[in-house]
Amino acid sequence: MTPLNPTNITDLSARFSGVVLRPDQSGYDEVRRVHNGMIDRRPALIAGCVGNADIVDAVNFARTHGLELAVRGGGHNVAGRAVCEGGLMLDLSLMKGIHVDPVCRTARAQGGVTWREFNRETQAHSLATTGGVISTTGIAGLTLGGGLGWLMAKYGLAMDNLLSAEVVTASGDILRASKEENADLFWGLQGGGGNFGAVSWLEYRLHPVGTVTSGLLAHPFDCARDVLKFFREVTSGLPDDLTIFGGLLHAPDGAQIAVIILCHCGPLAEAEAALQPIKKFGTPILDSVGPTSYEETNRMLDAGFPRGALNYWKSNFMVELSDQAIDTLISQFAACPSPMSGLLVEHIHGATTRVGVSETAFPHRQEGYNFLVVSEWLDPADNAQNIAWARESYDAMRPSFSAGRYVNYLGDDDGEDAVAAAYGPNYQRLRALKSKYDPTNLFHLNQNIRPI
Question: Labelling 298: which of 140, 199, 242, 441 has CA 20 to 30 A away?
Fold first, then answer.
């Protein structure tokens, strides 16, 4: 690495429209902190970009000076790859532009936008696209890795609604990618993560989404087996309008509970009829399901994921939720050391499964479930036991796993085998694409696809 001297930094700052921060400057510590409080890295330089020209200069600067390059959008990824140690952090969090075209039902948004900000603008026109389930998540990272969300059964994953993107590549070129222009790059952006460049703008297809019916049903933990079996039964034949997650969580008072979380995006009368059997099941201790806005639905789990909490996640796809898997979920959750942690089972069906395996870089198009261990706590002294519980829970569930993994949930300790599992039959094609657009692997602080 070429030593950075004040003149190099001064020259970059003089051209920059955004903000160039050194470790001794005000604001540096705030920007380098990402959502996961376990991540505590110190870049040599933070380039807070406001447009493509800034991104080009930052990428060229990192390449010229041999600096590791990290790209931060929303900064929500649990693995913390948005920030590097001693390199250059390319920060897009200042890039908040959003333009909604209600006639064409499209929206263009910059790479620093979060789903909360995006939904606020699109919902002003009663429009939406599939976003995450936590509103503080950045649109770019979630979309580029796939994009599970409450609208996915009706409208597909977030990336299935991506119409085009502007990308600054490792060579400093600004490319537009769509099905008509740089189509190979566009294919790679649909699930390939941040491997091919820094994405400055994303254009989405929007859908008419007004009032939806959503919320959470909580049951006592001693009913968990019945609740999870009922969840399995219900998910065997869902309409596209309805997305349901099941799981084992903690109530605000720390009590262990079994939950069904759902969103029905169809007409209210159809939602009421479809949800009646779910609402009548058992004797829930909480039923928050009812009509609300999609904007509010995307925020309903936010309180459980505060910024700065310590996080360690593990995840894998499952074709079915067997009795053995249910028993394992219950026994593992009974030993959960933190009242902030949980085990979630995200059901996938509908439009998401009606896309060919090779049509996008994201290959997981089979109806089934995604299992997720969310280990979350506040005291660093508790790191070891909470990480151990997550790993033990994941290992205990292995007999129920299918081959695939969701790239957005891969952790910092998941290696190349996990990335290969995330891309399955598309992995070699992605490696060839990486060789074309980033042959030296400048963009490697991600769920990395190595060039051939």
Answer: 199
Residues contacting 6, CB < 8 A, separation 6+ = none
Q: Is the dihedral of CA 340, 345, 350, 356 positive or negative?
A: positive
Per-residue confidence (pLDDT) for residue 248, from 0 to 100: 98
Integer Cα distance of 283 and 297 in angstroms: 23
pLDDT at 5 (0 to 100) = 81
Q: What is the DSSP letter of 298?
A: T
Contacts of 5 (CB under 8 A, 6+ apart): none
Predicted pLDDT of residue 415? 87
Token duo for residue 103: 């006639």
Q: Which helix (H) or strand (E) holds 157?
A: none
User: For 81-115, what is each residue's pLDDT tens digit?
Assistant: 999 999 999 999 999 999 999 999 999 999 999 99
Token pair, residue 44, equals 């040599």
Beta-ladder partners of 71:
90
What's the Cα-to-Cα distance from 189 to each of 49, 184, 378, 379, rounded to whole Å?
21, 9, 34, 37
Low-confidence ranges of the chain (pLDDT < 70): 1-3
pTM over the 0.85 mark: yes
Burial of 327 (0-12, 13-18, 19+ CB in 10 A): middle
Of 195, 200, 193, the C-alpha closest to 176 is: 200
Residue 386: phi and psi, rounded to 5, are -75, -35
Residue 4's pLDDT is: 82
For tokens 């936010």, the residue is 302
- Cα gap 146→7, rounded to integer Å: 41
Q: Give the pLDDT of residue 159.
A: 98
Q: Residue 358: what pLDDT?
A: 97
**Domains (ranges, CATH) in the chain?**
6-91 (3.30.43.10), 98-208 (3.30.465.10), 211-409 (3.40.462.20)
Q: Which residues contact 434 (CB under 8 A, 6 or more apart)?
A: 188, 195, 196, 441, 449, 450, 451, 452
Q: Which amino acid is at 401?
A: F
CA distance 336 to 363: 32
* The dihedral sign for the CA sequence 171, 173, 174, 178: negative
Exposure pattern of 234-253 as b/e (b: 16+ CB <10 Å)? bbeebebbbbbbbbbbbeee
pLDDT per position as a tens digit, 382-424:
999 999 999 999 999 999 999 999 999 998 888 889 999 999 9
Instruction: Give the pLDDT confidence score for residue 3 in this predicted structure.
Output: 64
If one counts every other C-beta atom within 10 angstroms of the C-beta of residue 78, the result is 24
Helices marked H in 133-223 = 139-144, 152-155, 183-189
Contact 406, 317 (CB under 8 A): yes
